[in-house]
Amino acid sequence: MTDEEMEKSYRSGLPGILGVIDTAISKMEAVILAMGVLLMALNTVTNVVARFVFGNSIMFSGELNRILIIMITFAGIGYAARHGRHIRMSAIYDALPVGGRKVLMIGIALFTSLVMFFLLYYSIIYIVDLYSKGRVLPSLGLPIWIIYLWVPLGFLVTGIQYLLTAVKNVTSHDVYLSTGVVDGYKDTETEV
Question: Per the domain annotation, does 154 fall within a domain?
Fold first, then answer.
């Protein structure tokens, strides 16, 4: 299965209800990311046209793009973890035999999961602090804390995804980068 086919028809490598939940979250992430990028492009193009045709920018355009960037970024980290797309520095990892890779991948996934849950905790504290200050966006009038709700949600989904990756590696024979991506390199050489 190619990357394009996998992204179009993601199926979790997890058994039972975990697989159903993982697949549902994947579909929600895909919709959020697609809609976010499309809305940001539409908002930006509309603002440029308004500025050059009518001589005035759309007052809330910058704030809306800020909200969409936060949403795309923190929905995207879970998506990247699910599809094994995070940047890896793998010189030591690649030099290890399969058993060593498996142990290291379990350790990496568990450590990354803990870091995500740590950041989740601090992002909630940050949102509570913003809530207590009562600040609002000048043009849209939304409380600022609302636009940051994507941050803990993204850390939660990513933390769970890395935890499930560790579980997948403990319970299976192969080494997995995520619950559905087996470790390995594609042949990237091209024929001349």
Answer: yes
